[in-house]
């Protein structure tokens, strides 16, 4: 398919091929039907632990569930919404009754493609991009795997090009949604005809462990299942009508000296998680320097923080002197969905876009931040460009001079091979 044909496939048959800055053009999300109420889940779990004589663990579970910042989550394991004694996944279940890894992977194989497709179709619809225009697909997951993989299955389900370039990002953890956005931005910046579809799907609750130890209970308290997707392409001219995020160059840093603070390994009964209680403290040691190197003198108007847990959002708010309004989108996603690993950051950006839309302001610059095993931190500067920023005849019209100025500046720096933030480390 030629570049002109791809432009035809994008919606309004508009053939302007002006190469502009790279932008996140649309977002889609999908969650399973089964909803977990945090209070009810904590009560059921505590009762189940008490029934098997684990009273201390029951008390601790109630406390950590209450302090998690989560009110609801979603799961592909309906038995987690019932009595703990009837669920083979619940902490306190005898190991011999708990599902083996192969059984959990079979459920992943059943549910992950369905959620991924829903999120992908939502992103395509939101962006106005036709599936036939997609040149690259990046799939992201750390909670399951199979071959041929999710990337190949999505290509079939969505009717993507046979010559599609597929890039699975597997087992990278919570920061991987940002890794995918950074990677897509780099791919699209180097190819005027490229349009990338990112799809993240995580079924974290599949790996709920039968153990009553604190690490297992902590994981059971705030992880949820969900999928998210976005379309990354070129903005500029009349091809896009705003309401998107222009993407600047991103950066990833690895603090390998803190590698033991966050672990995710394959076990006999699913995947085993270890999260050190020192993670917020460690992020406080590394992230400020990273922000200084990447965005010195930069004052974001908004922040999109991966809500890896209430303590992480609290730490970021304190470190950077943020207001409650600055962290609202992150806390709202944590409250309503829990931590969905790599899929979470696009939920936050969706919420941030809703906030920025409602504000009625003009283009505004922000910073997205996510963390994962390694210890890894991903940062990405963005500029939100609203669909309408001034009043015109017949209602609202785009402030095209402002938008074109931003697009031209970012596209010029992209072509020159330098980032708008001047980061070369």
Automatic annotation (TrEMBL):
- The broad enzyme category this protein falls into is transferase
EC number(s) per entry? 2.3.1.74
Positions of the Chalcone/stilbene synthase N-terminal domain: 14-234
The superkingdom listed in its UniProt entry is Bacteria
Q: What Gene Ontology terms for biological process does this UniProt record contain? A: polyketide biosynthetic process
Enumerate the CDD domains for this protein: CHS_like (cd00831)
Q: Which Pfam families match?
A: Chal_sti_synt_C, Chal_sti_synt_N
Instruction: Write one Gene Ontology MF term.
Output: naringenin-chalcone synthase activity
List the active-site residues: 174 (acyl-thioester intermediate)
The Chalcone/stilbene synthase C-terminal domain is annotated at 257-383
Keywords (alphabetical) are: Acyltransferase, Transferase
Family affiliation: Belongs to the thiolase-like superfamily. Chalcone/stilbene synthases family.
Give the protein's recorded name.
Naringenin-chalcone synthase
Organism of this sequence: Paenibacillus curdlanolyticus YK9
Question: Which lineage ranks, top first, belong to the organism behind this chain?
Answer: Bacteria, Bacillati, Bacillota, Bacilli, Bacillales
